[in-house]
Amino acid sequence: MKISCQENLLPAESFEEKVRIAEKIGFDAIEVWGRDLDARIKSILDSISTSRVKISTICSGYPGDLLSLDRKEREEAIHGVIERLKYASELGAVGLIVVPTFGKPKLPDLYPLYRDVLELERKLLIEELRILDKYAIDYDVYILLEPINRYETHFMNRVLDAVKIISEVYGEKIAVMADFFHMNIEERDLSESILSCIHLLRHIHLADSNRLPPGFGHTDFRAPFATLKKHGYKYYMAYECRIPEPVESNLEKSLGYVKKLIEEV
């Protein structure tokens, strides 16, 4: 298992300096934000060219909404995802993290044609993912579907929700991204949830129960880490959390805790 850190958590202004700090602390990679990548990709590539630190993933950053009522917004989202899949390929990343929508439903209730709006949304997303999968195949990167807790979205809250959608897409490059913070809210048992999607799991977000770094809350990481290790998970786990001051030393402390757990399980 390799450990990554979102770029905004690293206490530096320039990306070059963020890479230096990530390497010093002991991270294997950095997860970059998807915003403004067209203007930043050259400097990112230059910054990692002489470092052992890689780019693990791109976190969202595309415009629009895949489940918007407005066709223009859906098309913007599709185009934005395709553009960032290309950047992921250029950066050598695993793929792009995709959250289909935030908040409440935007589509109408079309009962009795569809039982409820969730059925309509699922069918729409499946068709969009069939389009996007072809680009992901061409770029040899993954679309990483991230389930989000019920307080942030009504749609795809649990890892099995993502698994069921993927099973209907019949795609080659649509995968699951599991987030420990969201799972801590939505899942009954973290290890069981990991096991239910391990065949499709290609990325993980790390945060403790309070959205602080692992080791700063009460989430039991030992059992799910053991499950990941037992089943040969070889992809990245990226820090996505709040870091209390002093940032650099607390990142180092948490990373030491995570590495020790992985070694022990």
Quick description:
The protein has 265 residues and is α/β, with parallel strands linked by helices. It has helices at 15-25, 37-48, 71-91, 117-139, 159-169, 180-186, 190-197, 222-230, 247-264; strands at 2-6, 29-33, 54-59, 95-98, 142-145, 174-179, 201-206, 236-239.
Structural class: alpha/beta
Number of helices: 9
Rg (CA only) = 18 Å
Low-pLDDT sequence parts? none
Mean pLDDT, to the nearest integer, reads 97
Q: Tell me the helix content.
A: 40-55%
The biggest sheet amounts to: 8 strands, parallel, barrel
* Strand percentage: 15-25%
Oligomer: single chain
Q: Can you write the helix and strand succession as a string? A: EHEHEHEHEHEHHEHEH
- Widest sheet, order of strands: 1-2-3-4-5-6-7-8
In whole angstroms, how far apart are the ends? Answer: 12 Å
What gross morphology would you assign?
Answer: globular
Care to count the β-strands? 8
Structure, described:
There is one protein chain. The protein is an alpha/beta fold and 265 residues long. The protein is built from 9 helices and 8 strands. The protein has helices spanning 15-25, 37-48, 71-91, 117-139, 159-169, 180-186, 190-197, 222-230, 247-264, and strands at 2-6, 29-33, 54-59, 95-98, 142-145, 174-179, 201-206, 236-239. Strands 1-2-3-4-5-6-7-8 form an 8-stranded parallel barrel, surrounded by 5 helices. α3 links the parallel β3 and β4 (95-98). α4 crosses α5 and α7 packs parallel to α8. The radius of gyration is 18 Å and the shape is globular.
